[in-house]
Amino acid sequence: MGFDNDVTNKLGIDLPIFSAPMGWVARPELVAAVSEAGAMGLVPGSLPVDVVRDDIRRVRDLTARPFGVNIPIAFAQDPSIVEMVVTEGVRFVTTSAGSPARLTPALKDAGLTVYHVVPTLEAALKAVDSGVDGLVVEGGEGAGFKSPHEVSTMVLLPLVVSRVDVPVVAAGGIADGRSLLAALALGAQGAQMGTRMLATTESGVHPGLKQAVVDAREVDTMMFNRTVGRPMRVLRTATATAADGGDARPLLAEVRRTYDDGDLEASLAQLGQVAGRVDDVVDVATLLARTVTELEDAAASLSSFVRVAVRG
Ligand SMILES: Cc1cc2nc3c(=O)[nH]c(=O)nc-3n(C[C@H](O)[C@H](O)[C@H](O)COP(=O)(O)O)c2cc1C
């Protein structure tokens, strides 16, 4: 199946799917597996710049296919990350969590393709003004840091698509072919998966956390930080419930005990509502092949339903 659109053509990928740039989760093995399968693996740039450089080099050892790097502007630990990704020959960057006007000109001058992650229409319009090549439009049901407005993908995606003329990739709530089809129907040209990719064989986290994703219901996430800065969506655990969605920072200091050691109560695990639809831990190649089959099946049954409904 050939997905021939602005996202796949410009980025040189076969499948219009990004894996989310998840710190300590999207290790090079996951990023490379996604790229090897024809989609877009993204290296998280939230880690120390030396770690990010090593990750980029390791991904390149593992695959010759295109991959990208995310720079979370507010959290990037060292401003030299921009120079580093350019020097390392990275061709695609997504920026998030901050004003794209700060980094886009330097990245574009160096010849990179830049997509910016946005949670509102206003942010989308500003990003387009700053010269980005595309947008990742992320609904409030997704994992991780969120806008205080928490607008859902279902509302935000078609709204942004109707007001911009750059390619849009949907994020938040997408975990399979049926939800990818919905994103395409709403006007996206691709989708980014976070929560779903966390529960893959190649994901860098402890098996206990992957199992927690499989076990989670759609109601088992909660928001933190609502009163102290950037809200974030995490797995609802006893620790998270006791902390009552307050300041996540003290707990996040122990995040590697949760991600690496599987101690779910030591810290907070970023997770999206779509965990309620994740039923297995599966390798990336199987997941992506299955997603394409599901997409084809869902599209075929929908189009025959619509044809019958409209024409009788
Ligand atoms: C563990 C984890 C870490 C994340 N870290 C980042 C990050 O550093 N930068 C970023 O832009 N998005 C980050 N995200 C958000 C994802 O990029 C993605 O947009 C989101 O997970 C999509 O929603 P979904 O979880 O419903 O698929 C993270 C998500 C998870 C699960």
What secondary-structure arrangement, pairings included, does this model have?
Layout: H1 6-11, E1 17-19, H2 28-36, E2 41-44, H3 49-62, E3 67-72, H4 81-87, E4 92-96, H5 104-109, E5 113-118, H6 121-129, E6 134-138, E7 144-145, H7 153-163, E8 168-171, H8 177-185, E9 190-193, H9 195-198, H10 207-215, E10 221-224, E11 232-235, H11 238-243, H12 249-252, H13 255-259, H14 284-311
Parallel strand pairs: 1-9, 2-3, 3-4, 4-5, 5-6, 6-8, 8-9
Antiparallel strand pairs: 7-11, 10-11
Helix pairs in contact: 2-3, 8-14
Bound molecules: flavin mononucleotide.
Residues 20-23, 25, 44, 46, 70, 72, 96, 117, 138, 141-144, 171-174, 192-196, 198, 270-272, 274 line the site of flavin mononucleotide.
Give the end-to-end Cα distance, rounded to a whole number of Å: 30 Å
CATH topology of the largest domain: TIM Barrel
Outline: globular
Class of secondary structure makeup: alpha/beta
Let me know the number of strands.
11
Helix content: 40-55%
CATH-defined architecture of the largest domain: Alpha-Beta Barrel
What's the CATH class of the largest domain, please? Alpha Beta
SSE series: HEHEHEHEHEHEEHEHEHHEEHHHH
CATH superfamily of the largest domain: Aldolase class I
Number of domains: 2
Proportion of residues in β-strands: 15-25%
Low-pLDDT runs of 5+ residues are none
Instruction: Quickly count the helices.
Output: 14
Q: What is the residue-averaged pLDDT?
A: 95
Q: Which ligands accompany this protein? A: flavin mononucleotide
